[in-house]
Amino acid sequence: MPTRLLLIAHAPTEATRRAAFPLDETIEERAVGAAQSLADQLFRADRIYSAPERRARETADALGLEAETQMLLADINLGRWRGKTFDEMLEEGPEAIAGWTSNPKSRPHGGESVEELIARIRPWLDHQREDGGRVIAITHPAVIRAAITIALGAPASSFWRIDVAPLSRAELRSDGRRWTLRAIVAD
């Protein structure tokens, strides 16, 4: 059965503006209007999901969507890096950031590696492909990168070559056997 899956990155947060690794913060007030303006562009879905974090749930609300929370769509676990800015991490040790962004098995923050994130997302994607229909999921840039990597059959090392901005949309389609990347849209 064909599947049409629209993955939506959550709206911007204070962490986005500060170039910080996110905590469970709310979306910025000005981002609510931007999310609301996308609502008319969405297709009617058979299933709508949201990651459990507040920023994803608030984005779903701003889009006017009643979403079921899916724990597998949670953001990558950044361990002790949560809440720190990229500049703070560079000051603490640029080799940790360099290793993390060049080795998909690396987890210097004590959280989840890129390979572990991809392994977590793969069964969720398989399930959506098996169920078929039209699906919308509001989640995080890292989760969307992982899903695109899986759809393309690309190596985990390609994860960092995919840029996903707040409120970006990636559409994947499946014929029941495999995924294809239909489009990536960023405003």
Brief rundown of the structure:
Helices cover 37% and strands 18% of the residues. The chain has 187 residues and is of the alpha/beta class. Helix 2 packs across helix 3 and helix 4 packs across helix 5.
What's the structural blueprint in terms of helices and strands?
Elements: E1 3-9, H1 14-18, H2 29-38, E2 47-50, H3 54-62, E3 68-69, H4 86-92, H5 94-102, H6 114-131, E4 133-139, H7 141-152, E5 169-174, E6 179-185
Parallel strand pairs: 1-4, 2-3, 2-4
Antiparallel strand pairs: 1-5, 5-6
Helix pairs in contact: 2-3, 4-5, 6-7
Structure explained in plain terms:
With 187 residues, this protein is of the alpha/beta class. Helices cover 37% and strands 18% of the residues. The protein has seven helices and six strands, in the order E-H-H-E-H-E-H-H-H-E-H-E-E. It has helices at residues 14-18, 29-38, 54-62, 86-92, 94-102, 114-131, 141-152, and strands at 3-9, 47-50, 68-69, 133-139, 169-174, 179-185. It has a six-stranded mixed sheet. Helix 2 (29-38) packs across helix 3 (54-62). The longest helix is centred in the middle third of the chain and has 18 residues, at 114-131. It is globular, with a radius of gyration of 16 Å. The protein starts with a strand and ends with a strand. The mean pLDDT is 95.
